[in-house]
Amino acid sequence: MKTLYKMSLVSTLLLSSAALAQEYPVGQPVIENGMEIQGVYLQPITMDTEEGHHHMHHLPATESDVHLEADIHAVEDNPNGFAEGDWIPYLVVDYTIQRVDKEGSKAQSGTFMPMVASDGPHYGDNLKLDGFGKYKVNFKISPPSYNKDVMFGRHIDKETGVAPWFEPFDVEWEFDYAGTGRKGSY
């Protein structure tokens, strides 16, 4: 009976860990304006991008090399009222990525979509890269007040108010891209 229990436990652990995709950081987390910003990539993923009257355009997983993400969460004493670890909603996160070790490589840029996955909410999108090599990625992070698609109120009274929104800022990393492993299993 103990052997059956152990086999069941091992199987459960193996299956649950196999369901998670391997994330690759593009650099060290950056702490700025009361937030921790971490860039990561993983294998391209399939997304549901049609809901009601909204339709988001993105590159299908079958035509992509990576799913690039900006994981943005509040740090302790966030001045805008978010608790430590909270995901920050309604940001505008623009990205630019370019291979830097190949002459003639063109930069590509866009705006990440907010989305949710089994490991929580983030900003991201699928991208086609310019092969294996060294890349530079830049995220321009703008506060909810820059989001033209949604109004996100902020208390400003003495008793319950929070600090004004931050000014847009950039974070940047260089990283080596050597693939993602098992493409399409996430």
UniProtKB/TrEMBL annotation:
Pfam families in the record: Iron_transport
**What species is this protein from?**
Wohlfahrtiimonas chitiniclastica SH04
Q: Which Gene3D superfamilies match?
A: Periplasmic metal-binding protein Tp34-type (2.60.40.2480)
Signal sequence annotation: 1-21
Which keywords label this protein? Signal
What this protein is called in its record is 34 kDa membrane antigen
User: Which superkingdom, per the lineage?
Assistant: Bacteria
Record family assignment = Belongs to the UPF0423 family.
